[in-house]
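Q: Entry one of two.
A:
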Amino acid sequence: MKSLLFKKIDAFTDGRSCGNPAGAVYADTDITDGEMQRIAYELRGFVSETVFVFPPDDGTHDYRLRYFSCEREVPFCGHGTIAVMYDLLSRDASASQFVRISTMKGILTVENRIADENAVYIAAPEPAYFDNGFDTEELACAMNLSPDRISASRPVTMVNAGQNVLIIPLETIDDVTGASPDYETIRAHCLAHNAEVINIWTPDTQHRANRYRTRVFAPTFGYLEDPATGSGNAALAYHLKQSGEWDGTPFSIEQGADRVNPNIIKVIWKDDRVYFGGCAMVKIEGNYFL
């Protein structure tokens, strides 16, 4: 029987919002792909993704991370990365300001700003942009929205910053917080259009300190909604930068259906990359026996 250090860590929260739960397995022993998938499946409904943290393979990075949902391996998981890196760096008094992680999306930089901002920042994977041309009537039907609630002044588009994120601009915060898509309907729509994640967003916010409100849905990974995301919001940030709506000044995104107590994702532009940041809280710690 194998014994693995396990933590349930809520990302993008200091306790005032719900955050986004991730499983963290610190794998200092051999573990197979099948065993990782089995653990992630067993944790379905408890966490959205499970992150497996390994020692480095070589001198190019400090940690190696792999991500699994209950259905499959995920190329990159932003909230899971925030969760494990905040946990690791907050417990290491001698931690460097910058560390490197190896993922399926390449070597990514993590910046430790815990002392100054109570946050770690993750360099989002390099973006891939997809042509516009999405049918708003079809999208509105799939999302259970009135077509006139999709903004006519901003494009529907898709950007990959870890996953293929379909980005849908809505008019108001009420449109975003009140959205109620059906899981099977948007899953079928995503699978038919090569999308993995849907981000609905608006510049209309509850709190003036934040610049955008979002909600993110991830039906192709086996669940409906991600309450606080890294890659989903990084894709939006890349789109805003490319379209000229964002000049690179740091800003915050409020995310979730809870209008008054949203989760907060910080965004900066550095070295021609989007970095997303936040804190995390360990809620459960123990041993996972396999």
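Q: Entry two of two.
A:
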Amino acid sequence: MIETFQANCLATLIGSLPLSDHGKASDLIMEYTPEIPFWALLPVHKKEGMMVQFTPGLPGFYSDDGDGFVNTDSDSYHHELLEFFEDYMAVIEGNIELDTSRFALKEDDARGFFMFWNRLQTLATPPIAVKGQLTGPFTFGTGIVDQNKRPIFYDPQLRDTEVKLLAMKARWQAHRLSRLKRPVLIFFDEPALAGVGSSEFTSISNKDIRQCFEEVCEAVHLEGGLAGVHICANTDWSLVLESSVDIVSFDAYAYFDRFILYPAQIKKFLESGKILAWGIVPTLKVQQLEKETVSSLLSLWDQQVNQLESLGIDVQQLTAQSLITPSCGTGSLSIDLAKKVLKLTRDISQEIRERHIMGGIEHGA
């Protein structure tokens, strides 16, 4: 039985790292965020692009070392689609093991996961929780196109297919990581949600997006995990705050003023026991990162907490139900700046925990 997870302003990381060696990436993660380590994408490798890494198993997908596309005009497409849904039902009905299905991550496509998994087996002290990740269904569905350059999210059948693919890949991660008998967090990266409501996505309804979230979250919940959504920009925050997502990860550094425009939803989200992951360390603009310190970012966080407190949200509840993270991944930064992000994240978490988590909390408690 996986124990209940207590966030308590622990630190974890988001997305990518600017390295080429998965072993070194795991070392860095364990050094700075040993309480909630994760497996990182290393985008220097073509197979670890945000979209392409999770395309294996998608019917009709073709790639010639570029971004690839789904070819619904191919002679084999309908056969591939039928096989996909047969495999899906076989797993759902228990006739095929998830580990041996098309939905399991493979070492060729996700070396970071398997390096991370092997490293976890060697730890003398287990982490408090472990974190997996993948591209979210909206970003994936609007980023992958068909042979006519049309995002597959606009085709109901293709949308259903990609959502089921991601749901099962998330479920596989939660299933594998749960063997450690520690709480499992699975984050869906959803940068494209910044475009919700824009002219680019006017024909996509909030209902369609919410249904996608419900399906992928349910898959994680079936394996006892917690489902998170990471958005590194502004969006219609009611979409995620009112969904079955357990953790909302947001860019608190740049977009807190937009986020707090949803006070009723934030309050209800926290009252239901869910978690906010504060992306308080900037990663998207080098000049911002270069000027910030632990002290300056703690001051910013204090200001933001005070604003939530003024809405009637209890500070102790808030800190108990918060994580501290960077605003996004560090894959586009230099290694020195990436290390600064990791160090700031760790040190801010430690300072907040010393200040707010009464009496201190022993590792694993």
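A: Comment on entry two: Residues 360-365 have pLDDT under 50 and may be disordered. The beta strands are 10-11, 61-62, 69-70, 130-135, 184-189, 226-231, 247-250, 275-281, 322-326.
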